[in-house]
Predict the structure.
Amino acid sequence: TLLAFAAVFGFGGSLISLAISKWMAKTTMGVQVITNPSTPAERWLVETVAAHARAAGIGMPEVGVFESPEPNAFATGARRDAALVAVSTGLLQRMDEPEVQAVLGHEVTHIANGDMVTLTLIQGVVNTFVIFFSRILGNLIDRTFFRSDEGRGPAYFISVIVSEIILGFLATLIVLAFSRWREFRADRGGAKLAGTH
């Protein structure tokens, strides 16, 4: 029962975040999706993403631009064939076409590899075990050191909070390690798509 409870809450937040990721990106980042390219730069951007998507074997992502002076780009979405690739105005202004092409290849590779879904599942798993083991430890500490018959005394709740902080930190290291590995893999894929390998 505890494991089921932990899984519901552990995966619940991650899956909801993934499901609304495109909407959140558009809303919070102010991404303007290019539906009808009106400038040569917009046409080149959409055509480059389309070429990368064909080469990677995925459906055409939505392509958008958001206002930011910093060079930045990201890909998001719950499905490989219905994703979003967005770039900042700073990236378009500061980088030349081959550099932007490589960045777009990197983001399309994230989509092709299913990185958003995989990261969500890994986050769900670690969240589940953080919730599960923190409650096991809380119950054990409360019963062992404070002799609470029900295992739900004040020490239980304090132990759960402390355990969640410690285990959450360790879980974050696991997620970060995977995230770094997927960035290296996307770099390789981006270089291949951009023809710079």
Observations:
- The chain has a mean pLDDT of 88.
- DSSP finds seven helices and four strands in the chain.
- The beta strands are 32-33, 62-66, 73-76, 84-88.
- The CA atoms of residues 71 and 93 lie 8 Å apart.
